[in-house]
C-alpha cells in the first residue's frame, strides 16, 4: 500500500517560492493500476519523484509498503527504493549496450552472478515479448520495442511498484495500446502496483482502476475511472473526459441542430456497463411517442466496463419529452440537457 499524507512540496525559484504539490492525500492499493492525470505543470512529475524517494516533501509523509520514504535515509532508503521501479517517456536506455545488456544492467548492480543474470534476462525478454531481439542495439528498435526493454529492465529486480512517467507519450496510438496491454498483463501476472502519470485520458480509460486529476499542485478529483467518466465534477476533469468522448468538438453541430430543429431538447446521455448494450433509445421512441435523432455518439472500454455517451435531439409534445427523460433517469441512464432548442 502506498500513501501520501498531507504532502506539500515547495521549491525556491528565482521568482520566489513555488508550491509544486499542494496538500495532496492519496492512498494507492496493492496491485492497483492508479493513474494521475493533469496538464503540464500540474505537479505530476514532482509527485512521482516523491514516490520513488528522489525528492523529499517539504511537509507530510510518503509511505511505500509500510516504510516512511520521507523519514528514512542512507542504506535503508536505497534498499526501499529498489522495490520501486520506473519507466520513462524517452526510455532512458544505454545506447552502447544491447537489449540483453540493458536488461542485465540493474542485475549487475545488484551483484547477481553471470549465470543467474543470463537466465533472468531470458525470462524478462520472454515476459515483454522481445524474443529474437536480444543482441539488437536500441537504435535498431522501434519505439514500442524500446519501451519493452525499459519495462524488462524496470522489472529485473522484482519491484513491488512500477512508476510510469508518460511512458506512452512518445508512441503512436497502436504501439501505445500494445504497451498498455503489456502493463495490464504484468499487473495481472505479477500483482505489481502500477502508478502512471499522463496527460492522455485514453491511457487512464484503457488501463487504470482509479484516477486522480491534478491541477496546480492539487488533486481536484479522484475516484474509480468509470465513476469519474460518468460524473466528472471539476471543470478540468470535464475537459479531459470530453476530449475522449469527442463532445468538445460538437458545439458547431449543436448550433446546426438548433437551426434545423427549432423545437425539442438536445440531451447528452451517459450509459455505463450493461446499459450500453440495451435498446434504451428504441424503448424511448415506442413508449413516449417522441422522435429521437442521434447527433453524436461514442463508446469506450474501461477496466470496469464500457462507457458510452450519446447526444440526441428529442422532439415531441413537451409532456412526452418530460416523461421520456424521467424514464431515462429510472433506467439509470444519466442525462444532461445541453441546450433547449427553443
Ligand atoms: N526542481 C524544481 N525547481 C523549481 N521548480 C520546479 C522544480 N521541479 C518542478 N518545478 C515546478 O513545479 C511545478 C510542477 O512541475 P511538475 O514537473 O511536477 O509538473 P508536471 O505536471 O509533471 O508537468 P510536466 O509534464 O510539464 O513535467 C511547475 O511549475 C514546475 O516549474
TrEMBL record:
GO terms for cellular component: plasma membrane. GO terms for molecular function: ATP binding; ATP hydrolysis activity. Gene3D superfamilies: 3.30.70.260, P-loop containing nucleotide triphosphate hydrolases. Keywords: Amino-acid transport, ATP-binding, Cell membrane, Membrane, Nucleotide-binding, Translocase, Transport. This is Methionine import ATP-binding protein MetN 2. Residues 2-241 form the ABC transporter domain. Pfam families: ABC_tran, NIL. It comes from the Bacteria. PROSITE patterns: ABC_TRANSPORTER_1, ABC_TRANSPORTER_2. Belongs to the ABC transporter superfamily. One of its GO terms (biological process) is amino acid transport. The gene is metN2.
Amino acid at each position: 500500500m502506498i500513501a501520501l499524507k498531507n504532502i506539500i512540496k515547495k521549491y525556491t525559484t528565482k521568482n520566489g517560492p513555488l508550491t509544486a504539490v499542494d496538500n495532496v492525500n492519496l492512498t494507492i492499493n496493492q496491485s492497483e493500476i492508479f493513474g494521475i492525470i493533469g496538464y503540464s505543470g500540474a505537479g505530476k512529475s514532482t509527485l512521482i519523484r516523491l514516490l520513488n524517494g528522489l525528492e523529499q516533501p517539504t511537509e507530510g509523509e510518503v509511505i511505500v509498503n509500510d516504510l516512511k520514504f520521507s523519514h528514512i535515509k542512507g542504506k535503508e532508503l536505497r534498499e526501499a527504493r529498489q522495490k520501486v521501479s520506473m519507466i520513462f517517456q524517452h526510455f532512458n536506455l544505454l545506447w552502447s549496450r544491447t537489449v540483453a545488456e540493458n536488461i542485465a544492467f540493474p542485475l549487475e548492480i545488484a551483484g547477481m552472478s553471470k549465470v543467474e543474470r543470463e537466465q533472468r534476462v531470458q525470462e524478462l525478454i520472454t515476459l515483454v515479448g522481445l524474443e529474437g531481439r536480444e543482441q539488437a542495439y536500441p537504435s535498431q528498435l522501434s519505439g514500442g520495442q524500446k519501451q519493452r526493454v525499459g519495462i524488462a529492465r524496470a522489472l529485473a529486480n522484482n519491484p513491488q511498484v512500477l512508476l510510469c512517467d508518460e511512458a506512452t507519450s512518445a508512441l503512436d496510438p497502436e504501439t501505445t495500446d500494445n504497451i498498455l496491454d503489456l502493463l495490464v498483463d504484468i499487473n495481472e501476472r505479477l500483482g505489481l502496483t502500477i502508478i502512471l502519470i499522463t496527460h492522455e485520458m485514453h491511457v487512464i480509460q484503457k488501463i487504470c482502476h482509479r484516477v486522480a486529476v491534478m491541477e496546480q499542485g492539487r488533486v481536484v478529483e479522484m475516484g474509480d475511472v468509470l465513476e469519474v467518466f460518468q460524473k466528472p465534477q471539476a471543470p478540468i476533469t470535464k475537459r479531459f473526459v470530453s476530449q475522449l468522448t469527442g463532445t468538445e468538438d460538437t458545439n458547431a453541430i449543436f448550433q446546426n441542430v438548433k437551426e434545423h430543429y427549432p423545437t425539442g431538447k438536445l440531451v447528452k446521455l451517459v450509459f455505463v456497463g450493461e446499459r450500453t448494450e440495451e435498446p434504451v433509445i428504441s424503448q424511448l421512441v415506442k413508449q413516449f411517442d417522441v422522435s429521437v435523432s442521434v447527433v453524436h455518439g461514442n463508446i469506450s472500454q474501461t477496466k470496469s466496463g464500457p462507457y458510452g455517451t450519446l447526444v440526441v435531439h428529442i422532439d415531441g409534445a413537451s409532456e412526452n419529452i418530460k416523461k421520456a427523460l424521467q424514464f431515462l433517469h429510472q433506467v439509470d441512464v444519466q442525462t444532461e440537457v445541453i441546450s433547449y432548442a427553443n
